[in-house]
Design a protein that fits this description.
Layout (H helix, E strand, L loop, with lengths): L3 E5 L5 H12 L3 E6 L3 H13 L3 E6 L5 H14 L1 E7 L15 H26 L8 E6 L3 H4 L6 H20 L5 E8 L6 H4 L5 H5 L11 H12 L10 E4 L8
Parallel strand pairs: 1-2, 1-4, 2-3, 4-5, 5-6, 6-7
Helix pairs in contact: 1-9, 3-4, 4-6
The chain binds NADP nicotinamide-adenine-dinucleotide phosphate (NAP).
């Protein structure tokens, strides 16, 4: 049987890196996609290989269609695609909507929404029984922000994750009888570098006393939920967004 391949977009750091480690530990070949930080991706691949796993780092910006096609061509070269984790995502500096430029909005929606759609499209072409595939699972990274709206911080980011909630439901129903399950997770405040990239490196420390569990989540805790949604243990679960937020924003 051919190698089973799982593609993790933005797999080099944070939640994606935790997912990549766990996917490789299960024996899948993992494609560790990254945008810019090749050093982090190479270090993770070396770590996975040292632990006996198989991983390949592939540079590619998910908002760029040619890059996405290249990513999936690599998956084809390595084996049979059985899973996609649509994890690549960005935030931006805190701003009100009345301050946001077209360039900011375009970047936010291109990476967080169009990138996820392009990757989902390519995954469905390979995994759907309608296209001769053998099925598989897609897990999308949403955010608690889609329910909170993130006012005075990044309403654009929250709205981009709202699009992910909706895409998860719609795509799940499109491919439900084609062997593909499509689900998502909505993390709350998770301790990764993403907060620094949004200009708030101390966000976790500042917010934790206001979180229900009085602590942020870890990348591993989110990855465990993603691994369940990728696995056959969730074989009758599709179209679902799982809140992995320590109780933050669990109500609609
Ligand atoms: P992170 O630590 O900032 O890591 C982001 C990863 O995405 C990196 O591997 C980065 O690659 C990659 N990436 C960024 N832009 C990309 C692009 N255009 N194309 C391909 N890869 C790209 O982020 P994280 O905190 O792990 O977040 C992962 C996902 O969870 C995101 O979708 C985020 O919105 C969501 N989420 C996170 C939190 C949280 O509190 N951390 C909460 C809710 C939702 P480089 O290393 O090359 O930059």
């Amino acid at each position: 049987m051919a190698n089973t391949v799982v593609l993790v977009t933005g797999g080099s750091r944070g939640i994606g890196a935790a997912v990549s480690r766990k996917v490789a530990a299960l024996g899948h070949t993992v494609i560790v996609n990254y945008a810019q930080n090749g050093t982090a991706a190479d270090a993770l691949v070396a770590e996975i290989k040292a632990a006996g796993g198989t991983a390949v780092a592939v540079q590619g910006d998910v908002q760029n269609e040619a890059d996405v096609l290249h990513l999936f061509a690599e998956a084809d070269r390595l084996g049979t695609l059985v899973g996609l984790v649509n994890n690549a995502g960005v935030v931006d500096l805190s701003q009100r909507v009345d301050e946001m430029t077209l360039a900011r909005l375009t970047r936010m929606f291109s990476i967080n929404v169009i990138g996820a759609f392009l990757c989902a499209r390519e995954a469905v072409k390979r995994m759907s029984t309608k296209h001769g595939g053998a099925g598989g699972a897609i897990v999308n990274l949403g955010s608690a922000g889609s329910k909170l709206g993130s006012p005075n911080q990044y309403v654009d980011y929250a709205a981009s994750k709202g699009a992910i909630d909706t895409m998860t439901v719609g795509l799940a129903l499109e491919v439900a009888d084609e062997g593909i399950r499509v689900n998502g997770v909505r993390p709350g405040i998770i301790d990764t570098d993403i907060h620094a990239s949004g200009g708030a490196p101390d966000r976790v420390a500042q917010l934790k006393s206001r979180l229900p569990m009085k602590r942020a989540g870890t990348a591993d805790e989110v990855a465990d939920a993603i691994l369940w949604l990728l696995s056959d243990q969730s074989s009758y679960t599709t179209g679902t967004m799982l809140d992995v937020s320590g109780g933050r924003a669990v109500l609609p």
